From TrEMBL:
Cell location: Cytoplasmic vesicle, Secretory vesicle, Acrosome; Secreted
Any Pfam family hit: EGF_Sp38_C
Keywords for this protein: Cytoplasmic vesicle, Glycoprotein, Secreted
One GO BP: acrosome assembly
Stated name of the protein: Zona pellucida-binding protein 1 isoform X2
Organism annotation: Camelus ferus
GO cellular component terms given for this protein: acrosomal vesicle; extracellular region; zona pellucida receptor complex
Main location: cytoplasm
Family, similarity comment: Belongs to the zona pellucida-binding protein Sp38 family.
Positions of the Ig-like domain: 41-125
InterPro entries: Ig-like_dom, Ig-like_dom_sf, Ig-like_fold, Sp38-bd, ZPBP1/2_C, ZPBP1/2_N
Amino acid sequence: MAASAPGRARRGWRRARAAGSPLSPAAVVLLLSASAVLAPPSVKVYVLLHRKSPHVLCVTQQLRNSELVDPSFQWHGPKGKIVSENSTTQITSTGSLVFQNFEESMSGVYTCFLQYKPTVEAVVRNLPLKYVIYAYREPHSYYQFTARYHAAPCNSIYNISFEKKLLQILSKLVLDLSCEVSLLKSECHRVKMQRAGLQNELFFTFSVSSVDTDKGPKPCTGHNCESSKRLAKAKNLIERFFNQQVEVVGRRAESLPEIYHIEGTLQMVWINRCFPGFGINVLKHPKCPECCVICSPGSYNPRDGTHCLQCNGSLVFGAKACL
C-alpha cells in the first residue's frame, strides 16, 4: 500500500536526523508542504430541485479564516471542467460554485482544485476539495382516510349519487386551504353483522393532499401556508365533519336514513411518498433526514415509494429502473 504524504515526510525527517545530516531550508519547506496536500473527506451538499443552490465553497473551514496569496480555483463536475460563467452555473470571484436552476442531471461528484500560497515567500500549495451534490425534493405527503357507510343495495343508483355528493362536500371543506380530496377506492359489500343479518356497506378510501398555493382560489403567503400546516387544518375539518354526522344520526327520533356513516369506522394514516428516482434515507443523509434525495448510483426507485432500492447495475444518479 502506498504511504501517505505526511508518513513519508515524517520518515524522511527521522532518517535525516539519524544520519546526522542537516536539512536544507528548501527540504524543510518541501516536507512541511507535503502534509498540506491531503484533501479532506468529501462533503455532501443538498440542493432543492429547480431552485438556486447555496454557495459551494472552494476552501476549507480552516482556510476560510486565513489569508491566501494568489489563489486560483478550478471546478470539475460530472461533465468535465466547469467554465466560470454559463446559463446554469456561476463561479464567483472567491471560487464558490453556484447553480442557478438545479436539475436532476446536475447531481454528482464535483471537485474544486485550489492553488494558493500561505505567504508571499511560500511555495504554491494544491488542495483538491470534493463534494457530492444531490438534488432533493419535498416528500409528497398526504392523509389517507377510510370510512364505512350503511348503504342501499349494492346495485342501487343511490349509492353512486351519494358518493359524488360526499366528495363534493369534502372537497369544498378544504378548498380554501389549497388542499384537494381524491377518491382512491369505493366498494360496496354485503356484511354479516354480529348476532344480526346481512347489511350493505360502502367502503370509501380517499386522500387529502396539498396543492401549490398559487393554484388555490386565494393567494396564500406566510408561515401558515406551509403544506404541513394546511394539511393539519384540513384533517381537523374532515374529522369534525364525520363526528357531526355521528351526532346528527344519534339525535334522530325517527328511523335511520338508508345511507349513513357508521360510527367508529373513520380511520386515518399519514403517508410520505417520494417521486421515482428519489428516496428517504436517514442513515445515508442525516443532514436531510426528511428529504426525498435523488438515488445514488447502486440504487433506484421505480415508483412512488419511500426508499431507494439496491441495484448493483445502476450506475447513474436518479435511476428509475434496475438495468
